[in-house]
Amino acid sequence: MASYRIRQYRDQDYDAVRTLFARGILEHAPAGYRHVLRSARAQLGLLVLFVAVRVAAGYWVLGLGAVALVLAAAWPLVRSFSTSYVCDALSTDLCDIPSSYLRAPDSCFWVAEAGGTVVGMVAVAPPQDPAERGVALELKRMSVSKDYRGRGVSKALCGEVLRFARARGYGAVVLSTSMVQVAAQRLYEGQGFRKVGVFSPSLLGSLLCFQIFRYRCDLPGGTAAPPR
After folding, report:
1. Is the distance from CB of 122 to CB of 104 less than 8 angstroms?
2. Global pTM?
3. How far apart are alpha carbons 192 and 216 in whole angstroms?
4. How many CA atoms lie within 13 A of 78 on its CB side?
5. Which CDD domains match (predicted)?
6. Which residue from 21, 81, 84, 162 puts its CA 20 to 30 A from 203's CA?
């Protein structure tokens, strides 16, 4: 028997939900930093910088120092993707969850509770893309506490969203997740989602090779998918 239960969001969950979401997003910043440093573009840029400083100054130590400075400056830039995303969410839909998800049409917000503590969360709402509205719903704000990962909480929360969309006759559920959230990608693919798009969140994201993956899960018996 599961040691948790899935229920709809309540007002007393407000602080716990916001904290869980922020921690879940910010913990991926180091992985994003490592991904950027492993990219061919970043490594080539660092090599060119080292050689240029070495030739101009005549000291390889100065070249290494320049590379170190760039690496130090890159960390806050990469982390800014996570912090800006969290700040935006906390000041918009997660600022007034009942209005955003409980009173809005075709929307809902669930939490996973264990021992009286919120250990997971997920939301569903109509997608922002006009082409997907009316035929799909969007899974949003999925997060599970580290201590409860690997226990089926994420799968159960995802299942709530799929059932919610199917019960309302929608033909698909869509979502977005970052390139560094590998465990989330495996979860969604295991639930029938397939990758349908890749994009960068900003010009800086493009320069740093930071990408967002778009996923879609088609539901049997729902509204027909839009033409491609």
Report:
1. no
2. 0.86
3. 8
4. 25
5. NAT_SF
6. 21
